[in-house]
Amino acid sequence: MPSDRQLLQSCLTPDRLRRLEAVLAARVANVTVVLENLHKDYNISAIMRSCEAFGIQEVNVVPQPGEGRIFRSVTQGCHGWLTVHRHRDVASCFRTLRGRGFRILAGVLGEGAVPLAEMEFPGRVALVFSNELNGAGGEVTDKVDGSFIIPLAGFSQSLNVSVAAGIALNRILEWKGQRAGEIERIPAGEAAKILEKWVRRSVKRSDAVLKELRSRR
Question: In 3-state terms, what secondary structure has residue 20?
């Protein structure tokens, strides 16, 4: 008996299915982002959009003030293609990521921070972006494995957090892309689950369509 995904795939054009499969095949599994205590929903949405555009599948969110809405006008719906993990606090988030082999780096000002262009990013890496006004607190800076800065040459001494995230993601993927074996793709089993989610998302009223397709068999 065909699976739900197979039934729904019959509703997609071959070009659409190939597009879903191609995007999924290009996803990066060994880079993720942590959004910690961001209070502007706009920034959360903009960073998610950048993650999706760069091929990052997973985003980790630690509770922040406000409603935490996803602004569709900013994400253009791209958050629906991402895997979003919500954590109760920084400690549990970092513990989970380290348990999966991630090294955690934060974009913060301060002693010991290394210019982004001078850093290396081997293995699994999580990039932390924190509160827009106050930056990362001690709960983050005391627990990360390293920190980076983006040097600026103008009068402005800071960047919008979503802009900084885009620059950092571009740099880390450029570094990994120049080295054989540094980009890890999503394992087959996990990729199959993501593809099923994407196929469902691509078929309008997928539950009703599935019910109708099953009734014909």
Answer: helix
